[in-house]
Write a structure and sequence with these properties.
Keywords: Transit peptide. It contains three helices and seven strands, in the order βββββααββα. The chain has about 160 residues and is of the alpha/beta class. The protein has a single domain, classed as 3-Layer(aba) Sandwich (Severin), CATH 3.40.20. A seven-stranded mixed sheet has the order 1-3-2-4-5-6-7, with helices on one face.
């Protein structure tokens, strides 16, 4: 599995997004370079579709949503296939996504650290990833813990977020 390296993460806020707004509907577009191993995170009211490679489709998209009880959770999606790949290729893509998802979530959560200072209760919100596929065995939803575990893992401080004084 890839190891998350904060020095290889570039973060861009898409205006008018700030590190405190929006909350519900806040969207993350995470892409990467296979050559340099860099991660690119765009945070906005909309996904940054221009950053997505239409042939590779190896991005992770995520957004904050409310459940039926008004609780926020982070839900993401990974495009395994839409019928254009063989089952063998879809299987490979699914395995790569599941192997690399923790690194992707590290990038998303770590890249938006100031957001959690404004909304510390969200460090304990659940994270779900939808794997999108025409093959039933890959079309699934997986629980990936909470932002807290990615923040702790990324910065080695068990009680993050710290409030700035």
């Amino acid at each position: 599995m890839s190891v998350f390296n904060p020095q290889k993460l570039s973060v861009k806020l898409i205006p008018p997004t700030t590190f405190s707004q929006p909350v519900e509907g806040r969207k993350y577009t995470l892409t990467h370079s296979d050559i340099t191993a860099e991660l690119f995170l765009d945070i906005g009211y909309v996904y940054n579709y221009k950053s997505i490679d239409p042939k590779m489709r190896d991005e992770v998209l995520a957004t904050w949503k409310k459940d039926s009880h008004g609780r926020l959770y982070l839900v993401g999606k990974a495009y395994v296939d839409g019928g254009e790949f063989s089952q063998k290729v879809a299987d490979t893509r699914f395995k790569i996504f599941t192997k690399e998802m923790a690194t992707a979530l590290n990038g998303i959560v770590y890249g938006d650290r100031p957001f959690y200072v404004h909304y510390p209760f969200l460090v304990d919100a659940p994270i779900f990833i939808h794997y999108l596929s025409t093959y039933p065995q890959y079309r699934q939803v997986a629980f990936y813990g909470t932002p807290r575990q990615y923040l702790n893992h990324s910065i080695k401080q068990p009680d993050f977020p710290h409030h700035q004084t």
